Every structure is written in C-alpha cells, then in structure tokens.
TrEMBL record:
Record-given protein name: GTP cyclohydrolase 1
Catalytic class of the enzyme: hydrolase
The entry's keywords: GTP-binding, Hydrolase, Metal-binding, Nucleotide-binding, One-carbon metabolism, Zinc
Source species, domain of life: Bacteria
NCBIfam families membership: folE, PRK09347.1-2, PRK09347.1-3
Coiled-coil intervals, chain numbering: none
Domain GTP cyclohydrolase I: 31-206
Organism annotation: Pedobacter quisquiliarum
Gene3D superfamilies: 1.10.286.10, 3.30.1130.10
GO CC field: cytoplasm
Substrates-to-products reaction catalysed: GTP + H2O = 7,8-dihydroneopterin 3'-triphosphate + formate + H(+)
Length: 211
C-alpha cells in the first residue's frame, strides 16, 4: 500500500466517513509552503496567531481534497442489492462542499440525484458519499456533475440517471465580478431522463428544494 492511501483507509460505517487521520509527511511539506506564502503576503509567520497556521491550513487542505483517496465505484458496489423496484429514486438536497480548481476557493451548495433502477438498487447513504468522493477534490462544477452521473450509470447500470447541482462559488462572490448571490446550476442526464416527461417529473420532485 503506498503512502498516499494508507492514512485514509475508510471505516466501514454507514453514511459519511469522518476522516481525521493525516499523512504527517505530506502535512509538513505543505505547511512549509504555507509559511512562505504568509511571508510573501506581508505577514509575520512567527507571531503568536500564525505560528501553527501553516500546519492547520495543510491539514484543512488535506481534508478538503481527500476525495483523491476514495474509490467512488467501490462505495456503490459495497451496497448494491437486487430489487424489482423500477420507479424513480430521488435523493435531494445533498450538501456539497468543493473547491474550484482555478482559484482553489470553495464552492458549495446542493446536489439532487435520481436514478431509475434496472434490477439493482443501492443503499441510499452511498449516493451522498459518491458526491463527496468527487467533491473533495479540485473541481469545476460541470465536471463534478458529469463524474457523479457517469459513476452511477457505469456501476449500477440503471435505466437512467439525473444529476442537478446548484452552487455558490466564492471565486465569484469574494473576488472577480463580486456577485454575492448568484447560483450556478448544472445538470447531467442519461437514459430515460432524455425523455421530456421523465425529466419533468424529476424536476418537479426536486423543485421544492431549488432556490
Ligand atoms: Zn474559481
């Protein structure tokens, strides 16, 4: 097992996995750079409030990008069950916290996901975990949307997958155009969701959560 993955072995808990183990070697390397950055922005990294900041930031960064150490397909495969149910399954209002790869600033919001089973269903808690596995990386919202769709489609092989994500991007609201309240919405569909009526049904079911 290589060093990159050994500190992030997932516990077999249902739902979210709290990852609070860190690779100290990586933390130290990242922290060294953050100390330099503090100096470069005109700060004094030796003053009391900042002494431990490089290490804290390094740990935060490692947590915020722990998705690289996950295998989303395996998360789904660990809880797939044969079932005849063939109506739409919707999981809405899944919280998302990710970081844009252009500015390394957070974007956050909600994901709404549906699939139409085709012989198998999946444990409902696994869908938010798949969202997290892709969100906890450097991302763009468009790719995040497609990756979640493709993972569910290729692993579960349902009759259709729908993913809608709505997020606020701090790189838009804190800098650049400084639009505080704009929300970016992305969507991706497969299979039966190409049909207008099926997609309308999904959108109707999630609309209460859209804002
Ligand atoms: Zn950005």
């Amino acid at each position: 097992m290589d060093k990159h993955t050994q500190d992030f072995t997932e516990e077999e808990n249902e739902g979210y996995v709290k990852i609070d183990r860190y690779n100290q070697e990586r933390i130290d390397a990242i922290a060294t750079h953050y100390k330099d950055i503090l100096e470069q922005i005109g700060e004094d990294p030796t003053r009391e409030g900042l002494v431990k900041t490089p290490e804290r930031v390094a740990k935060a960064l490692q947590f915020l990008t722990h998705g690289y150490d996950t295998k989303p397909e395996e998360i789904l495969r660990s809880a797939m069950f044969k079932e005849d149910y063939s109506q739409m399954v919707v999981v809405k209002d899944i919280e998302i916290f990710s970081m844009c790869e252009h500015h390394m600033l957070p974007f956050f919001g909600k994901a709404h996901i549906a699939y139409i089973p085709n012989g198998h269903i999946v444990g409902l808690s696994k869908i938010p975990r798949v969202v997290d596995a892709y969100a906890r990386r450097l991302q763009v919202q468009e790719r995040l949307t497609n990756e979640i769709r493709d993972c569910i489609q290729s692993t579960l092989n349902p009759a259709g997958v729908a993913v809608v994500i709505e997020c606020k991007h701090l790189c838009m609201s804190m800098r650049g155009v400084q639009k505080q309240n704009s929300v970016t919405t992305t969507s991706a569909f497969t299979g039966q969701f190409a049909k207008e009526t099926t997609r309308a049904e999904f959108l109707r079911l999630i609309t209460a959560g859209l804002h």
